[in-house]
Amino acid sequence: MKKFVLCFLILAFLVIFVNCTKISAKENYEYRLYTPETYRAEADTSKFDNDSKVLFIIDFSNSMNEKINGKRKIDIAMDTLSSILPKISPNVQTGLRVYGHKSGFTYMQGCMASKLSVPLARNNAQNIMSSMYKTQATGWTPITYSLKQAVNSDFLGVKGKKHIILLTDGGENCDESPCIFAIELMKTRDDISIDVIAFDLDDVEANNQLKCTALTTRGKFYSADDSDGLSNSLFDSLGIDKNVHGTIQFDD
Asked: What distance in Å separates the CA atoms of residue 125 and residue 143, rounded to the nearest whole number?
């Protein structure tokens, strides 16, 4: 009888152990096999400090000429940014990269239409506003290429925490994945976060890709359908209280 009880206990232990192992392996497998629907990450709530750099990447593709309530989306974006930029502390380094500002006749031309319009610098609001209003929305949507250029060129030699705010009304259309790029980036970098503002974007796959890009880098994803939504998204991304006049106060 004692042997029977002992064998039963050993068998029960092995069954429990095997099941727990399977559950653990399944959980690890699902974590590695990332999909936008299953990924969970805490936003970086301390992304700003006195050494932070903020690079705006703005969509100037042709679709930004479409209108919301009678006004072009690109005009809404530029006017909204112009109302918020002066509220950023002049001591914070800001810059501007744009894409889609040139119409490419070939795939390569359209997918490389991205440039750093205003390099990172302090007290840069006026330079960014001036550059924006001189730019035309006309081309494609090379999001991943723009992010690569930002990381590998715009941030080259730049120390400290770096924050990208990507504003786009469309998903990647240059046969690349910003989601995959973000995942690979985070394997070697922890100094860059990306907030994404999807402006008037109702494409499920595009939203999933962009949400992945933000959450993977411990950034935030916003969905804005009009000027108020865009304004609220920018205020939140920059950490500005829209009801308080003055400049951003960054954590030490």
From this structure: 23
Two tokens, residue 201: 């974007």
Strands 67-68 and 221-224: what pairing?
Answer: unpaired
Identify whether residues 15 and 124 lie together within a single domain. no
Tokens representing 102?
């040139």
pTM for the complete prediction? 0.79
End-to-end CA distance of the chain: 69
The distance of Cα 88 from the centroid of its chain, to the nearest Å, equals 19
Residue 98 lies in a domain: yes
Strand, coil or helix: 99: strand
The total number of structural domains that make up the chain:
2
Category of 92 on φ-ψ map: left (φ > 0), alpha (ψ -120 to 50) or beta: beta
111-132 pLDDT, tens per residue?
Answer: 999 999 999 999 999 999 999 9
20 & 57 share domain: no
